[in-house]
Amino acid sequence: MIDSLIKPVNLFLAGYSYLKGSVTGKADIKGMPVSISAELTNNCNLHCPQCSSGSGRMQREHGFMDIGLFNKVMKELRPYLYNINLYFQGEPMLHPLFFSFIGNSKPSHTVVSTNGHYLSEENSGKIVRSGLDKLIISLDGIDQETYSAYRINGIIDTVIVGLKNVIHAKKMHNSSLRIEIQFLVNRHNEHQIQKIGQLAKSVNASLSLKSMQIIGKEDIGSWLPIKDRFRRYKIKDGEYINKNSLPDRCARLWFNPVITWDGKVIPCCFDKNAEYVMGDLTRDSFREIWEGDKYSIFRKSVLSDRHLIEMCRNCTSGLRGVKY
């Protein structure tokens, strides 16, 4: 097949098999994923209380992805990928070979999400020159008190300076890098939404208002935003449940899996603890895992009884007005 046709043909095959599965309930898979998320590390410098990694609730081991493993995956998947997210749990810029991962992700559209504490002048210049397409910077307040209510151990001045460093480097190199400020809306900061919007506009960055996932149900009352539009949960029979009706389908199982730092393939970004491992890339090829029996059985369970899967019950994919 002509190289220029591989990606669009693969996208068509993946889309066709997903739509067919959604209608028939059959978990057939055609094509390879068009996007992946690679977890460079699940270590983090912050201790955010509702983050699996930062809160200490993560049950799996911590570590850093081997660049050789990543290159092996890229060799197999590069012909099919439109997009690569170089983050999952943890802070990706902690990886000693962080910039090598960006370089080895090309020519796919590449995205990094960071808490903004490592955006020195030097690193900002490297990011801009690396060819990275999009940088997401988490900034959940406009003053230290509000910001650190969630970003425990975080220093807002460091993040603001880092943001300015990237903006300056972008101008210096006439870069097309897209910068997005991500604001995790919760009860402690929702009163600052207008001001964070003004900040984003002043630096020519886009703004994403993200609904908070609350992993400790006993803490919902402390974090749930007052405004309903920013909540991913509703009260039913005296309990907080996800607003999502959880239809029996999920595009992620046909389009964009996650690879943990140690090479485990998991269905999506809601599987923080890698409880639903579909295979191990240190032993098998991606295609063997993607087309294997374990993935097929899991896809079938989502197409028939998605609401019974614990991970899915916190999913907001497809939920209107809520970004996950």
Describe this entry's structure for a reader.
With 324 residues, the protein is α/β, with parallel strands linked by helices. It has 11 helices and 11 strands. The protein has helices at 3-24, 67-77, 98-105, 121-130, 144-150, 156-172, 193-202, 220-223, 252-255, 286-290, 293-305; strands at residues 35-38, 83-85, 109-114, 134-138, 178-185, 206-211, 233-236, 239-242, 258-259, 264-266, 279-280. The strands form 2 sheets. The protein has a 9-stranded mixed β-sheet. A two-stranded antiparallel sheet has the order 7-8. The radius of gyration is 20 Å and the shape is globular. The model has no long low-confidence stretch (mean pLDDT 92).
Sum up the structure in keywords.
globular, nine-stranded mixed beta sheet, two-stranded antiparallel ribbon, alpha/beta, 11 helices, 15% strand, 324 residues
Quick one: biggest sheet? 9 strands, mixed
Radius of gyration: 20 Å
Mean pLDDT: 92
DSSP summary, beta strand count? 11
What's the overall geometry? Answer: globular
Low-confidence sequence ranges:
none
Q: Gap between N and C termini, in Å? A: 37 Å
Q: Total number of helical segments?
A: 11
Please bin the fraction of helical residues: 25-40%
| Order of strands in the sheet with most strands | 6-5-4-3-2-1-9-10-11
The secondary-structure element order is HEHEHEHEHHEHEHEEHEEEHH
**Which structural class should the secondary elements be placed in?**
alpha/beta
The portion of residues forming beta strands comes to 5-15%
Secondary-structure map:
Elements: H1 3-24, E1 35-38, H2 67-77, E2 83-85, H3 98-105, E3 109-114, H4 121-130, E4 134-138, H5 144-150, H6 156-172, E5 178-185, H7 193-202, E6 206-211, H8 220-223, E7 233-236, E8 239-242, H9 252-255, E9 258-259, E10 264-266, E11 279-280, H10 286-290, H11 293-305
Parallel strand pairs: 1-2, 1-9, 2-3, 3-4, 4-5, 5-6
Antiparallel strand pairs: 7-8, 9-10, 10-11
